[in-house]
Design goal:
By secondary structure, the protein is of the alpha+beta class. The protein has one domain: Jelly Rolls, CATH 2.60.120.10. It has 4 helices and 8 strands, in the order ββββαββββααα. A 3-stranded antiparallel β-sheet has the order 4-1-8. It has a 3-stranded antiparallel β-sheet with strand order 3-2-7, with no helix packed on it. Strand 5 and strand 6 form a beta hairpin. Helix 1 packs across helix 2. The two termini are about 25 Å apart.
Amino acid sequence: YQGGFIDKMVFIVRGKLESVGEDGIVVPLFEGDVCGEELLMWFLEHSSEYRDGKKSRVTGQRLVSNRTVRCLTNVEAFALRASDIEEVTSLFSRFLRNPRVQGAISYESPYWR
């Protein structure tokens, strides 16, 4: 919900949802769409560099939503928790920072444009 913390990235398998931004613009979401994908970019931007051979984790900070997502029909989806996304970005940050990979992601996500 708008103003709440984004704590997961949701992959829609079946059903219809809508995302309403703080500006009132409604974006329909369907099978194959994702919401909460800004978490991936956020963790990449906020992950620190290696220190003493270890990557430090982002602590005490959370991303706030600027939209509300509602189900319009029964929905089947799966989700990745923020902690899981943080771990993936930490383990695979070199791969995810590759310009070709970011180009592919930005083609699909408005948060990477």
